[in-house]
């Protein structure tokens, strides 16, 4: 059995998700393509690093991420830091010949993403961006139907990612509200997940026409870079600072295939928790998905007899993508963790089989070009071309 040593940078929420995936992947996908070994975890906060090593079962910890890069025993560098750190760490890892798993979005600008993509292309290492929602079995089933031609030519689509965790003005000014640390707000944080899924399903984007808004202009200052995701609330005496990124974005999309669509992302939608949806209409049918009901895919095929035509619900399970490795009957239920386990499996398999992971840094760069076009369009109030790679 092959083993791959992992160095994980960042000891917060995403470190927890990735660590569970490394532990669980061989249990679900046995025989595993390789066994991930949690070798070292890094965080600038020593208490967080020490606790992360104990909690997530890493052999050692450090407060300097460069220790992971310079460690000859490390095979994989896993980046779970705020977005502004992705570029420096990923380029250093690529130059050191380490494979890379990087949390999304890939970078804070398209230019940074281009440098990261070129670094991994030159080094030949495997590099994946962690857009895990596309690995939900129902999304993979939608991809299967589209590629089989079951819904015909794609005509139009709509996608949403709606949350409410930051709708309260008392939720703190985490790094996700500061442009220098995150690049963009709702667009980069959650909107790019929908961009990734729909680009994966319907093809490349050519043009966008966008509107963005910042509803809450200032927020209470929090100490450190830890993410409360709206769970902590400030008191009336807490100093505030400006928010300089978008709370909401909404844009129209023209695809290379001729398909047309809309995408909306907001973190200010009271009553919506993790509401990721897409609906795709084709010349022979339609597909609808809602992540909050992630075991389900709703489909309608025009070839069905008229007296029974309409949306039907398919519950994903063993007959569907990844299904035989998850749970033994449909609708038994999958969660966020399973999407990360599948992501881990696909990434490790790309290393052992010497194949290109997906979404790759190429895809991450493409998504940053789309994000840049969205922000340009929001400023110009005009259609903007997505720049070519």
SSE run = EHEHEHEHEHEHEHHEEEEEEEEEHHE
C-alpha termini separation: 39 Å
Q: Overall pLDDT, averaged?
A: 95
Main beta sheet strand tally, sense and closure: 9 strands, mixed
| CA-based gyration radius | 21 Å
Describe the oligomeric state of these chains in a short phrase.
single chain
Describe what you observe in this structure:
It is built from 10 helices and 17 strands. It has 389 residues and is α/β, with parallel strands linked by helices. Strands 16-15-14-13-7-12-11-8-17 form a 9-stranded mixed sheet. A 6-stranded parallel sheet has the order 3-2-1-4-5-6, sandwiched between helices. A hairpin with a 5-residue loop joins strand 14 and strand 15. The protein is globular. The model has no long low-confidence stretch (mean pLDDT 95).
Please name the defining characteristics of this protein.
single chain, 389 residues, alpha/beta, 9-stranded mixed beta sheet, 10 helices, 17 strands
Topology:
Elements (H helix, E strand, L loop, with lengths): L2 E7 L3 H16 L6 E8 L3 H10 L4 E3 L3 H5 L5 E4 L6 H10 L3 E5 L6 H14 L3 E4 L6 H12 L5 E9 L16 H4 L3 H17 L2 E9 L4 E3 L19 E3 L5 E8 L4 E7 L8 E8 L2 E6 L5 E6 L10 E4 L20 H17 L8 H20 L3 E2 L4
Parallel strand pairs: 1-2, 1-4, 2-3, 4-5, 5-6, 7-12
Antiparallel strand pairs: 7-13, 8-11, 8-17, 9-10, 11-12, 13-14, 14-15, 15-16
Helix pairs in contact: 1-9, 4-5, 5-10, 8-10
